[in-house]
Amino acid sequence: MALDLFTLQGRTALVTGGSRGIGKMIAAGFIAQGAKVYISSRKADQCDATAEELSQGGGVCLSIPQDVSTVEGCRALAAEIEAREGKLDILVNNAGAAWAAPFEDFPEHGWDKVMNLNLKSPFFLTQALHGALKAAGSPDRPAKVINICSIDGIRLNPLETYSYHASKSGLIYLTRRLAARLIADNIAVTGIAPGAFASEMNRAARDHGEAVSKAIPARRIGRDEDMAGAAIYLASRAGDYVVGETIAVDGGVALASLGAAGLE
Question: What's the rounded mean pLDDT across residues 247-263?
Fold first, then answer.
């Protein structure tokens, strides 16, 4: 058995929304395992600063600021990657947005913003990078697409985040459909459904981690290494035979929480 199951040495990755939060956790993990990592985000200053930070200590992290909320933005990012690399081993579709509003007042622009970035963009960025991913993959070492979903696509939370719930549930199923098509091109598509990780999007976990932990079977919120570890597994040789699966990384909230007595 190979002893380097989790190395990413010699691999090139792109992480969208990589300047902060879960995207930054994944990028840092990939770099620690030897990957060359491109990060992309809408705000150029944040993207550049994170790339500089993650390059400390000899790692390679490069910034390509881009808004991937449109098809044109997805294609522009793909064109830049292809111009620089020609092929791409790992794509992490992480960029996302959330919107909460009462049912009676939920706005169309809140619906469209979330659905476009969370569901439409992963499809069209993967489509635009299909050639680069196909060029990198082989039967013995497939290229990887990892979609960052959410446990809110598996179970409900009490917030009125209608488009977020719908987009993340849709992304889990889109992961399966893309996997069925792209494995023929030696591209393995999988997903990660995070639970409570401290981030700008999940301010409750960031600012009230102790209180949030009380509802988590594992009794804590996620740490950087929890997210990095799951992504490294799927991106590395260790995850080559995992196709179409979305892994909940949430301390047991979605799949190991007991219902109330009498409601089974």
Answer: 84
